[in-house]
Amino acid sequence: MKKRFFLYFFLYIASSLLLNCSSAYIPYRNFQGGYKDYKIDTNHFSATFRGNAYTSLKEATFYVKKRAKEICDFEGLPYYKIINLNKNLEECSMGGEVNCFIDSKSRKETCQNHEARLKKPSVTINFKCLSRNQGPELADL
After folding, report:
1. 79 backbone φψ class: left, alpha, beta (φ>0; ψ -120 to 50)
2. pTM (2 decimals)?
3. Which of 17, 57, 61, 64 is most buried, with most CB under 10 Å away?
């Protein structure tokens, strides 16, 4: 039993170190998070950033706005205006080992689930890229 515990503990620590603490600013990958985007129509886009359990909602919002700025810069338009913003915390579980034991006096079986409930942030924005003559007064960044 102790060997099993230490094996799980070692695997947990090793995977935590490999995955790093917060999500990297990279294109979306299933377990690591990252950004996704697509073009809706001329100068209108949608971008999403999904973090891992160590990424704050504030950090995810910063990254999705950073992606919006990059897209508009690539389009040759220096500003963007957020049309709508959606923040979400997706709940997931990690672990799930169940330990059961029988009380010697009552002969009653008791089980405990050791699963960790984690929350991963997801922020999506729809935005419009703006030209210089549309002005920074309309822009969000």
Report:
1. beta
2. 0.68
3. 64
